[in-house]
Amino acid sequence: MSDQATTATPTSPPPAPSGPRPKVSNRGRNAVPISSSNSDTADIPEYDYFVAPGPRGYPPLTEYLDIWEVDMLKRPDETNKMEHHTSLYGSDFLIVRRGQEFQIKITFNRPYKPNEDKFAVEFVIGSSPEYSKGTYIPVFPTKERQSSWAGRVVDSSNNVVTMGITPAPDCHVGKYRLYVAVVTPYGIRRTRREKSRDVYILFNPWVAADAVFLDDEEERDECVMNEMGIIYHGAYDDVSERTWNYGQFDYGVLDACLYIMDRAEMPITNRGDPIKVARKASAMLNSRDDEGVLVGNWSGDYTYGVAPTSWTGSTEILLNYSSSKMPVCFAQCWVYAAVFNSFLRCLGIPARVVTNFYSAHDNNGNLKTDIILDENGRIDKKSTLDSIWNYHCWNECHMSRPDLPPGFGGWQAVDATPQETSDGMYRCGPASIQAIKHGQICFPFDAAFVFAEVNSDVVFYSRRRDGTLEPVKVNRAHVGRMILTKAPGLETSRDITEQYKFPEGSTEERTVMEKAEEYGCQREKSEFPEADVDLVLPSLEISVGDDFELSLEFINRSDQIRNVDAYISGSVVYYTGVSSADFLFKTPRVKIEPNSSESTVMQVRSESYMKQLVEQANLHFIVTGKVKETGQIVTAMKVVTMHNPKLSVKVSGMAKLSEEMTVTVEFTNPFSFNLEDVYVRMEGPGILPPKNKYYSLITAGSSLTWSEYFTPRRAGPTRVIASLDCPALRQVYGQESITIKP
């Protein structure tokens, strides 16, 4: 035998298996599968025998108490839905809130005898019901035997028993299957599964024991029950409004919200915790990680979807997602916030959309937005990479925070817009607003990121010839200039800036910054002597296509002449602050007499910016300058949101329940150019489902008229909202308020 080692012959790896990937199972890890789908069901046997079968099989159980009928008392005008504030939901099922009693009626084959008969109402959720996990809950009618859900006999007459059931205030939220089980000496006989007896159980902000309790009736009515919202955008000194139909009560929306949690494979056992629900939904509302609800798009090209500025409500988006099982195209921050708001309100979590004007996107946690200037004070656009969003929308939801020290419950910031990852996924929050205000940015979740959005400094650096940067000016008041939300019960805004931060320069504000620095935030601490020359850019209100004047005022507060070499740049920007194209650049030298002012006026022609204009029509002016005598840097920044033409919306008819009405949308193209590929949308809560129409061309100066018939399904105040959208003209809206009589 040879002692030479045998050399193995290399071979090709086996071919990759074809066909669908095998489903990973739980075997070897869990005794039963982890239930993570509300739509999955488990078969509950109609008979559970206590004895072994005899020669003739199991003994019959029909001679004992038998269930003939179960009335869920689920009509909108019945006590259950009225007392649980769920009568507006478009659903054929019983919808109630946890921690509060609801009633059902059970008809037996004979009168119920409390001392002899034993029965229970059973609630089951998910595919692996277990009593210990709160996914199987028997509810008993006697005080002697109770489970985590309370039960009692409210009334018993003839063969009918009215049963009162109070779900635990921390039970899982979702759709439960209901059975009625009767106990006999030989076994249990229960009703068969009937979908009509399913019960939806939601969060309950009306009950103090629920984690989402909100002890403010006006705020609660606004943040849970109101379907029609106003979302603020534009510039902080020229605020615009966008009306939105949250549609949380529309038919199919509740099931769509439960599907979102199913799609996320969120365990049923986590669905009673609003902290976990909000955090999971924050990730699921965007599609970046998990095939979630909305695809973000800031490119301006929306060929294969709906432009974010075209949407008028959440209903169409949620129903499209639940039916197609595919992400919906497209969204930007206010669409994410609006649909997230619908999700939270639908499940019973108080929620509102807030808008932060001049919102910093802090991607490195240094609390600074850097603007680089050359030696002469001119902006170096190649080196200036940071941008500040003209506005950014996120959500606040109301809940207790038992995971944080006392005092940090209440309103929490959550954000579904995919900006930065949190624990490996694109999501943000819930972050305590109180923690943000007091600099406690170490608390979960993502308090530091939201803190930076409202507190970052704008730092101007001068680049020396050797390439090093020297800070020359800090603007501590630019970011987080104003934070707005809709006022409860009113059609106006409410400024909630003070809920996020103390007044700039106050003792409390300095203390907060010191606290934030303890947790790793880095601010620019350099102090610079105040320049004796001020630069003022006035507010402007301009319509798209207008020529206008840009006036700059230089104010000299010294006793000597000052000369300023100024650099004035104007650019078309997206609302995220990202520049699209420059259309203006001037370099005037301004001489200012002592203790006086000097104005410089520039003419801006529409042809200089119209061809570069992007959606939302924002113009950004930045003026920098260097004072020749002192070397000091002066700066001013201004975002001008140009106003679009309006849609005309008119409603005619009797404005009465079940009486046919007409809505007419009209628009005239005011421009000298044609509008192509135009989409018009309209909808109205409780009266008009989402509708849309396409126009291939609206020539210059011509008009369109679109009429639709509708029959109101619900009485009360509401409105019809409409939008017009095309590549050349975004964000055109109109609305009409009406009150439907019973």
UniProtKB/TrEMBL annotation:
<feature type="binding site">
    <location>
        <position position="457"/>
    </location>
    <ligand>
        <name>Ca(2+)</name>
    </ligand>
</feature>
<dbReference type="InterPro" id="IPR001102">
    <property type="entry name" value="Transglutaminase_N"/>
</dbReference>
<comment type="similarity">
    <text>Belongs to the transglutaminase superfamily. Transglutaminase family.</text>
</comment>
<feature type="active site">
    <location>
        <position position="392"/>
    </location>
</feature>
<dbReference type="Pfam" id="PF00927">
    <property type="entry name" value="Transglut_C"/>
</dbReference>
<dbReference type="GO" id="GO:0072378">
    <property type="term" value="P:blood coagulation, fibrin clot formation"/>
</dbReference>
<dbReference type="Pfam" id="PF01841">
    <property type="entry name" value="Transglut_core"/>
</dbReference>
<dbReference type="GO" id="GO:0046872">
    <property type="term" value="F:metal ion binding"/>
</dbReference>
<dbReference type="InterPro" id="IPR008958">
    <property type="entry name" value="Transglutaminase_C"/>
</dbReference>
<dbReference type="Pfam" id="PF00868">
    <property type="entry name" value="Transglut_N"/>
</dbReference>
<feature type="compositionally biased region" description="Low complexity">
    <location>
        <begin position="1"/>
        <end position="10"/>
    </location>
</feature>
<dbReference type="GO" id="GO:0007399">
    <property type="term" value="P:nervous system development"/>
</dbReference>
<keyword id="KW-0808">Transferase</keyword>
<feature type="active site">
    <location>
        <position position="415"/>
    </location>
</feature>
<feature type="compositionally biased region" description="Pro residues">
    <location>
        <begin position="11"/>
        <end position="20"/>
    </location>
</feature>
<dbReference type="InterPro" id="IPR023608">
    <property type="entry name" value="Transglutaminase_animal"/>
</dbReference>
<feature type="binding site">
    <location>
        <position position="455"/>
    </location>
    <ligand>
        <name>Ca(2+)</name>
    </ligand>
</feature>
<feature type="active site">
    <location>
        <position position="333"/>
    </location>
</feature>
<dbReference type="InterPro" id="IPR036238">
    <property type="entry name" value="Transglutaminase_C_sf"/>
</dbReference>
<feature type="domain" description="Transglutaminase-like">
    <location>
        <begin position="325"/>
        <end position="418"/>
    </location>
</feature>
<keyword id="KW-0479">Metal-binding</keyword>
<feature type="binding site">
    <location>
        <position position="509"/>
    </location>
    <ligand>
        <name>Ca(2+)</name>
    </ligand>
</feature>
<dbReference type="InterPro" id="IPR036985">
    <property type="entry name" value="Transglutaminase-like_sf"/>
</dbReference>
<feature type="region of interest" description="Disordered">
    <location>
        <begin position="1"/>
        <end position="40"/>
    </location>
</feature>
<protein>
    <recommendedName>
        <fullName>protein-glutamine gamma-glutamyltransferase</fullName>
        <ecNumber>2.3.2.13</ecNumber>
    </recommendedName>
</protein>
<dbReference type="InterPro" id="IPR050779">
    <property type="entry name" value="Transglutaminase"/>
</dbReference>
<keyword id="KW-0012">Acyltransferase</keyword>
<dbReference type="GO" id="GO:0003810">
    <property type="term" value="F:protein-glutamine gamma-glutamyltransferase activity"/>
</dbReference>
<dbReference type="InterPro" id="IPR038765">
    <property type="entry name" value="Papain-like_cys_pep_sf"/>
</dbReference>
<dbReference type="InterPro" id="IPR013783">
    <property type="entry name" value="Ig-like_fold"/>
</dbReference>
<feature type="binding site">
    <location>
        <position position="504"/>
    </location>
    <ligand>
        <name>Ca(2+)</name>
    </ligand>
</feature>
<dbReference type="InterPro" id="IPR002931">
    <property type="entry name" value="Transglutaminase-like"/>
</dbReference>
<dbReference type="InterPro" id="IPR014756">
    <property type="entry name" value="Ig_E-set"/>
</dbReference>
<keyword id="KW-0106">Calcium</keyword>
